[in-house]
Each structure stands twice: as structure tokens, then as C-alpha cells.
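Hello,

Our lab assistant flagged a job as stuck in the queue for most of the afternoon. It eventually completed. Since we weren't sure the result was trustworthy after the delay, we are filing this so someone can double-check. Below is the sequence as submitted and the structure that was eventually returned. Let us know if re-running is recommended.
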Amino acid sequence: MGHPVGAHVPVAGGLVRRGIANAIEFEVEALQVFIGSPRGWAPPRLDRAVADDFREQCAARGWPVYVHAAYLLNLASPVAETVQRSVENLRVAMASAERIGAAGVVVHAGSSIDGDRPAALKRLAPAFRAVLDDAPSSVRLLVEPTAGGANSMASTLVSAGEYLQAVGIAEVGLCLDTCHMHAAGEDLADRDAFEASLAALSAAAGPGRVGLVHFNDSKDPRDSRRDRHEALGEGLLGDDGLRAVAASPALAGIPLIVETATQARDVAHAKRLVREAASGTS
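-- returned structure --
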């Protein structure tokens, strides 16, 4: 089963006026957007007419839509105020995502801040329950493991499994990022090792937990702990690693979202890798 391929679509200038136009220009089959400031605490606000128009246009084109939450959110923080503000922001993001017809909201796994990961893991379950209390059932919350720096709560597939076990809510899924996995030390080009890691994740957290893949190359070597995206095929992850992800039976059919500065070029490149993976060519 192939992957819908898309991009994170800039919406500055209007969710419909610019977002839809950019998506058409990039020739996407799926898309991700910010619906609020990615670097601030203000919860996303949507004009209902704009939300309805965006939802209808995406549905008419058959585009799955995903929302990326703000970067500041940290449900693992030892600071109670930070957790509460993160919960409140995510609750609004989930409701807004439903209004635009989004299938999921992506939130970073966060940081323990103080290095006490066991204590931070214990904070996750109540925080996630608060986010999902009365949340729309049509929108899936997807946790994105990060590149492994700054007391990251989840970066490798093993740590992502531990994270989901701590959350303890089967409906919560994962958004894997190829650049982040590479930076955290996963050898994506070693297909047997990668499939074994995905199988271990499934055994630890249950099947079907991956709901989205951010499909990015990396400027840095494996195990660098650095999150710097590169145009597809131009980085140190390269086509072999990206193609292995596209070919993984465990990830079949999951949308691939490019998050680079060269969206149109990289959407086309990703589509080629998907075709090659499906045909067994390289």
C-alpha cells in the first residue's frame, strides 16, 4: 500500500487563500499546517467560515490534514504552570483541528527539563487525560519524538515505546520524523534493524501506534542529536534511509509529510522514493 505524500504548508496570508494555493503548487496528497503561532503560548483561534471553507476544499481534493501544535508545549515539564498551559493550548488545538477536518494534532514529546526522566514519565498520564477529556474523537493526538537533545523524553523508538506506555492511552499515537530518528541514532538504511525496532515498538506499545511520518533528510550525521532538516537526497540520511522508511511494511499507507524549505521539489522526490519502494527498485 502506497503513502500519501505531502508537505507542511505555509499559511501566512490566510489558511485558505495561501494554504490551499501552496498545497496545490506543491502537488500534495496530504498536508500539515500551523493554525496558531508555532513559537508562542496563545491558543490557536479560527474564523469559523474560514475553517469550514478550508475543510471543504481539502475534503473535495481528498487531502488528509494534520495540525502541528506549538513548539513550547511540554506535557512532561516539572513546572505545573507549563503543563497546565500546554494542556489548555492542546485542548484548543484539538477542537480547532476538528473544525478544519484534520485527522490529527502533532505535539512534541517534550523534555524532563531537570533530567529526571522517571519522574517526568509519571507526569504524562494525568496530563494526557486532561488534554483528551471531552476531546473530539475524530482527531488523533500524535506524539513526535525529538532528536534526542535537551533531556528529551522520547527520541529513539525504544524511548517512544516507553513514553506511550507511560501515557497509557491506546488512542494516542506517534508521529515519527526521519531526521529525528537519524539524529537519535536509528540506522534507517539498515532495513532489518529498522524493522526490528518497529516490531519492538509494536510489542511494547501495541500495534498501529504510528499515525504520521515527517519525511526529512538531515544535515548532520547519525547520532548527532541535532535537528536540522535537509532537502531530500541532499543530506546525511540520504535516499537509502528514506527509501527504507517508505518501503517498511509496518508503515504502509501512512502519510509522509515533508518539512523542508524546498517543498515542491521534495514532495516530487518523496513520491519518486515511494514508487521505487513499491517496485523494489533503487
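-- support follow-up --
The delay was a queue issue, not a problem with the job. The result is valid. The CA atoms of residues 7 and 257 lie 5 Å apart. DSSP finds nine helices and ten strands in the chain.
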